[in-house]
Amino acid sequence: MRLLRSTDLALRVLMRLAVADGSSPTTRAVAESMDVPYTHAAKVVAELQHMGLLVARRGRGGGLALSEEGRTASVGAVVRAFEGDGDVVDCEGATPCPLHTGCRLRGALRRAQEAFFATLDPVTVQDMVAAPTGPLLLDISRAP
What are the percentages of helix, strand and coil residues in the chain, rounded to 5? Predict the structure, then answer.
């Protein structure tokens, strides 16, 4: 299973903010430090804010901050929110698969997808920034 770019970015934004150490970086600063387009970062930040995982303040002294819910958020829940819970394969798309009524692959892939999410469910954002990751994130974010 391959994550969408927005899912990957959402997890990295949450991890970056988890080690912000009292600072409130702007969306633009986060986008630049992660080398992603500002517009893409802004969409992801808006969705994370809508989910209640981060707080965005405008104006002088504004920026992004992780909410308490964001710090304890399940990585599995974040991935589900961004990836959706659709099937891994589209058996009934524009050209339905001729095997869809008797195929066992679809069920096996669904179980594999659920196992993937279940593995991520107990992991929190805070868990993801434990050493050695947190200090590395801090070094990256301070780089010019």
Answer: 55, 5, 40
Residue located via tokens 């954002």: 125
Residues 6+ apart with CB under 8 A from 120: 74, 75, 76, 79
Within 8 A by CB and 6+ apart from 66, the residues are 14, 17, 18, 20, 53, 54, 55, 125
- What pLDDT digit, counting tens, does each position of 11-70 carry? 999 999 998 877 889 999 999 988 999 999 999 999 999 999 999 988 787 899 999 999
**Number of residues written out for the chain:** 144
**DSSP collapsed to 3 states, 41-100:** HHHHHHHHHHCCCEEEECCCCCEEEECHHHHCCEHHHHHHHHHCCCCCCCCCCCCCCCCC
How wide is the angle at C-alpha 76 spanned by C-alphas 75 and 82, nearest 5°? 90
